[in-house]
Structures are given as C-alpha cells and as structure tokens.
Amino acid sequence: MHILHIVGARPNFMKAAPVMRALGCWDGVRQNLVHTGQHYDANMSEIFFQQLDMPAPNVNLGVGSGSHAQQTAHILSHLEPVVRDYKPDMVLVYGDVNSTMAAALVCAKLLIPVGHVEAGLRSFDRTMPEEINRLLTDQIADLLFTPSADGDENLLREGVTPDKICLVGNVMIDSLVRLLPVAEESTVLDNLNLQAGNFGLVTLHRPSNVENPATLASIMHALHEISRELPILFPVHPRTRQRLKASNNHYPGSMHMLDPLSYIDFLALQRLAKFVITDSGGIQEETTYLGVPCLTVRENTERPVTVTFGTNILVGRDMNRLRREVARILAGDQRPGQVPPLWDGHAAERIAQAVMTWRRSLSHIGSSLERALF
Ligand code: UD1
User: Is any atom of ligand 1 closer than 6 Å to the C-beta of 39?
Assistant: First the structure.
C-alpha cells in the first residue's frame, strides 16, 4: 500500500511524524512525503524535521507566502501533477492549515482517498481561516480521524456518515510523550538565565489578534504590565514580528522577545512555565497534557476538551480578565486539569490500524478500479 503524506506548516509536522512512524511498522506499506513549503524558514520547518526524526520530504512545492487565495491556488496547481505522478492509494492530510484544505481538494478531484488527521474540530467561528479549512476538508475526506468525542458529534451533525469517522485520540500528544524525556534535558532555561516556575510563556499569531494594530497594542500593553510581576518569554511568530515591526512600538520591561523556538526547547519551556498565554490551537492541548495553566486570548476554541477537562481558560480579548487570571495563578489559585481520554501517546498506532483495516475492506473491490480513476 502506498501512502502519501502532505504537510506544509509548523503545526503539521508533530502530527505527521508519529503517523509515519506507526505506519512504517506495518509490512507492505510504502510512504512518501510532500512539503508544500507554506512554512519555509529553517526555524519554522527544518528544525522540526530534525527533532521529530522525520525523513526529508520527497518533494517540496516551495509555495511560500501570499494571500490565502494565492497560497491555496499555488498548492492546487503544483500538487496536482505530483499526486498524479505518485499515484498513492491514500493521501493523509493534517490539521487545519491552508495546505491541508488545498491538498484534500486536489486529491478529492483526482478520486484519491483522503484521510484527515485531526478531523471534526469546530470553533463555530467562520471568520477564522482555519475553520473554513476544517469544514471543507472534512466534507471531502474519506476517513476522518478525530482527537476527541466532540469531533465525532460535529461531523455527524454535518452529515458525515459514521463509517468514515474514527475516534483515535490526539496524535500531537504522541510526539509530546515521545520527546518529553529529551525536552527534560534541554538547557534552554539556563541559557536564558531563568528559573523553573518563575516565568510566563507567550505565543501570538492569529490574524484576529495581530492584524489589527489597536488589538495588538492592547495585548502587548497587558503583557508588558504582566512582565513587571515575572519575566515573560515571547518567541515571536514571523507574522507577529512583521506586525510589531510595522507598529513601531517598543515594549521594554522583562519581556524577552525571541525568534521561534525548536520543538524540544518550546516543550521544555512549556512544562516549566508558571503559565502560558497563547492563541495557538496546539498549545492549548499541550498545556492541558502537561497540567500547566493556559490563558487563551480568543473568544472561542475548536478544542473544548482543553477547557472542560484541561487547564485552559478562554480570556477572550478582555485584557483586564487576562490580568486577573494571571494574578490568580500567581496567588496559587489554579484549576487542576485532567488529561482527556485517548491522549495517551498511542493515537498514531490507532490511525495506522484503521488505515490498514480500511485498505483490507477495499481490497475486494480490486485495485483495477482504483487505477482506472487516474
Ligand atoms: C499558519 C496557519 C495556522 C497555524 C500557523 C502556525 C493557515 C490559514 N494558517 O498561519 O493555522 O496555526 O500557521 O504557525 O494555514 N512566514 C515567514 N516564514 C515562514 C512562514 C511564514 O516569514 O516560515 C510569514 C509569511 O511571510 C506570512 C506570515 O508569516 O506573511 C504568515 O504565514 P502563513 O503561512 O500565511 O500563516 P500563519 O500565520 O503562519
């Protein structure tokens, strides 16, 4: 069986790595990897391949930056000949980035079965580009691997048939579980001269937080105030760096503005932080697993189990609420969290098992039919 994995942006890599490893344990599975090149800086891409021990991509489409339409169109037109050439039995796509949706669309039109890893998540906020990507990908995928039961409910409500849905758990946590012992050896905190449990960690990159100068300024102002209480570490995403540069504001105090960090160093910092302030999806999940308080600067989340089970609190864009929640944590009042079911480090093995079962169920139809689709 030939599986083509398609990745493009930073949050895809830690999801694809364990799935490739798990499928590699099955006899008769051949795998290839396409990188769309949506993320191209070494510290947004290459370092993740090294640390996650992923093979180099067979093909890099080099799509780079652009508007959503430009990026999506570039992937559509450059990926189609590659998929035609590779003729995979199944394509696996990951998460909710532009590369995910564009790749699923190419394959659906070529009648190649698509599996979507991290299916069914919904913020119910269609102003988010990722929500559009999630909705479209799930409608055209053939196998939908969900991380939590709310994903199954969302898909069923949208008319997806139950036989396509497979609750496997959180595959990103597989990478975390595997690499946590390595992160425990990281010297990143010593290098920054900080103490465990005595710093806050921040990431921000959602368009809704960084594109509007007034919104970004109010968040930065609040972070600056918080940094008077304890040091704040802020690895800055390229999108955010561009916007901060354009705003020409300076934020002194104990805010350490860093370049994007590697997977291992960021994991090391997450586990030792007093709290994390973020608008990332994946970090809401990682902090829940690690039991570290997470304050999410968003009005909604497509990952509700991080709130109901985990350590996540949605503070919205209310910066007074953010300050209050930080004060509570510093006063020792933090809510305990639990790890959601199936976030156990074995989600990728369940995906591999489901893919192989799906393959066997198709074999009676015969490969001639599948080949005819090209
Ligand atoms: C994308 C995803 C988002 C994900 C995030 C993680 C979509 C719609 N969004 O957002 O879901 O949470 O990745 O990082 O797919 N840039 C660089 N170097 C890079 C990559 C990007 O400088 O290696 C710059 C680009 O020039 C662009 C900006 O960052 O101006 C945004 O990049 P883009 O891929 O469009 O979206 P992200 O904000 O990274």
Answer: yes
